[in-house]
Every structure is written in C-alpha cells, then in structure tokens.
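Section 5: illustrative case.
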C-alpha cells in the first residue's frame, strides 16, 4: 500500500507535458504532440519486434544446455486425473512405471524387458512401423 501511495505521489509531482501548446511555445521546446506520439509508436514497434525476433531465435536454437549424455528419458505419460498421472521412464536401459501425484512419486513396477522403445512406440509393434512406412510412401509422390 505504501508503494502505491509513493508511486501516485511521484506521478502527481512530476511536471506535466503540455499537450496543446501555443505555436510560439512549440519552437522553444522542440517537440510537438505528433512528434512525441511518433517516437512512442516507433519505440513500441521496436520492442515488439525484438520480442518476436528473440522468440524466433529461441525456437531455432533451442535450449543452450547440451542435450548429450541424457540417461533418463520419459517414454510415455498417461493422465489419471487433474493432478495425478502414470509415467513410463527409461533409466539407463531399464524401464519403470511411476505414479506421480502432487508431492509424491511412487515406483509402481520395474520391467525386466522393455515395454516400449525410446521413441514411444511399443516394442514388437510391427503394425505401427508398417503404418508409418505406408504413410511416408504416400507423401513422397
């Protein structure tokens, strides 16, 4: 509350710029209302352009942290409710089924053999591979 009062006090103490100045006063100050609005508009365009440029560059470059050497990989996730989910995780070649809820992570099962490959498809799922191959062939011509 004190900050708000101090801010309003600082704004009321500042010297207001004349919006409608007499022609003689315009020559003295060197700026007009249209000049100020043009300067404000150009500044706004530059700031918005920089935001879009940085967003584009971040999408192209991606995170700066190196991605090599990742030993933990989330293979699949299934929501059970608004805050709970099941997650299949691959850690060093061994897959685990985890139950995740707010403030808690439980290991539900550790699989001896992989249930799904690292790309998220089921191991031994020839149907999915064949379907993808057919779809790729149809797109080429």
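Designed sequence:
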């Amino acid at each position: 509350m004190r900050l708000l009062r101090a801010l309003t006090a600082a704004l009321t103490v500042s010297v207001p710029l004349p919006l409608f100045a007499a022609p003689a006063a315009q020559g003295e100050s060197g700026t007009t209302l249209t000049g100020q609005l043009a300067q404000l508009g150009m500044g706004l365009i530059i700031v918005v352009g920089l935001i879009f440029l940085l967003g584009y560059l971040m999408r192209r470059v991606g995170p700066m942290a190196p991605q090599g050497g990742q030993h933990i990989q989330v293979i699949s996730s299934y929501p059970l409710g608004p805050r709970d989910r099941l997650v299949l995780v691959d850690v060093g070649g061994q897959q685990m089924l985890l139950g995740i809820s707010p403030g808690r992570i439980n290991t539900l099962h550790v699989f001896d053999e992989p249930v799904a490959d690292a790309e998220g498809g089921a191991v031994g799922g020839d149907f999915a591979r064949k379907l993808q191959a057919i779809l790729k062939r149809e797109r080429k011509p």
